[in-house]
Design brief:
The protein is α+β, with helices and mostly antiparallel strands. Helices cover 19% and strands 35% of the residues. It contains 5 helices and 9 strands, in the order E-H-E-E-E-E-H-E-E-H-H-H-E-E. Strands 1, 2, 3, 4, 5, 6, 7, 8 and 9 form a 9-stranded antiparallel β-sheet that branches. It is globular and about 65 Å long. It starts with 18 loop residues before the first strand and ends in a 34-residue tail after the last strand.
Length: 220
């Protein structure tokens, strides 16, 4: 995969050695993250809204109610910023100043457009599959009325960057002699045993999409 162009929007200024503009790195983070935060400006005020997303190539899809002001803003072609973060660890240094987090984050910039027709239905499939692979074919799919009540927008990703921190704490050289514990507390996203709807038949088996559910790098 190629790298994104770099300009004032996505250039990493603070600790640039942690940054990447490679599509492969950015998209791996977006695909593993269950949700994102979308930032936009309305009436002069910055607004950030969490939402589900799904990606295909250089396009990010969002969906929601037709009355959503976020989706109306994106559909009108206004600029937006989308961020996703994966937390991997709590970093405890010998000094409070050098405490940190291990993380993988991606920020993308682009303009949106409304989605309809066959692309809309495919986007709804992608959004479902982003949460659980195989679920689209296991569940009842949307009726025409349900599709009509749902708005879908696409964001063409024009600029993006990723930033990653990993490894142990980095202390001032003199602090390494201090008798203070330092290290990393790993953080993992845990998915517990699915709890069935009480109205399910007692012998209903767990579907394949939820068996041993976990998230990680997404395959093509």
């Amino acid at each position: 995969m190629s790298a994104f162009p770099v300009d004032h929007l996505n250039r990493i200024r603070r600790k640039p050695q942690r940054g990447s503009y490679e599509r492969e790195v950015v998209y791996a983070i977006l695909d593993e993250a269950l949700y994102c935060h979308v930032g936009f400006v309305e009436d002069g005020w910055p607004i950030v809204i969490p939402t589900l997303h799904a990606r295909r190539e250089d396009t990010l899809y969002l969906h929601g109610a037709r009355a959503s002001r976020l989706l109306a803003h994106v559909a009108a072609g206004h600029p937006v910023c989308v961020a996703a973060t994966l937390l991997d660890g709590l970093v405890f240094a010998r000094s409070v100043f050098n405490h940190s987090l291990n993380y993988r984050s991606a920020i993308v910039f682009g303009h949106g457009r409304p989605v309809d027709g066959a692309e809309k239905r495919e986007a709804l499939r992608l959004l479902t599959e982003h949460v659980a692979r195989g679920r689209w074919d296991e569940a009842r799919q949307p009726t025409p009325q349900e599709e009509a009540a749902t708005a879908v927008v696409a964001i063409a990703i024009a600029w993006a960057s990723a930033k990653i921190r990993s490894g142990p704490p980095v202390d001032n050289e003199a602090d390494y002699e201090l008798p203070i514990w330092a290290g990393v507390v790993p953080v993992v996203q845990q998915f517990l045993t699915p709890v069935p709807d009480p109205r399910l038949p007692a012998d209903m088996p767990l579907p394949d999409s939820l068996r041993d559910y976990r998230r990680g790098p997404r395959l093509p």
